[in-house]
# Entry
Amino acid sequence: MNSPYTIYNRSKLADMAFEPAEDHSGNLQPVSFALYEGKYESSADTALRRNAYDSFTKTVGAYKHTFAAVYGTEVKKAVTLAKLRGYPSATAMLLHEQQVRNHI
# Structure
């Protein structure tokens, strides 16, 4: 049941190799999902931020079809589970535990 999430995480954490990004001083900095999202994305160093973005989007873009297929599988799973569990929609099923009404 967790295959889509497992595939996404393995692709993201194990399979991707990012090119290093150059900072304003000309030093190469390693890039990863964690470093980009936690540090470089909001860095005050404009050169590093832009170069890290280029490295990040280039690498993630190479996996766009894989991530699209994984997302599609997750959506189909949610729709199927909602039908089997008697919910009117996948949205209603996903919001049920959070006690959020569907119209919000």
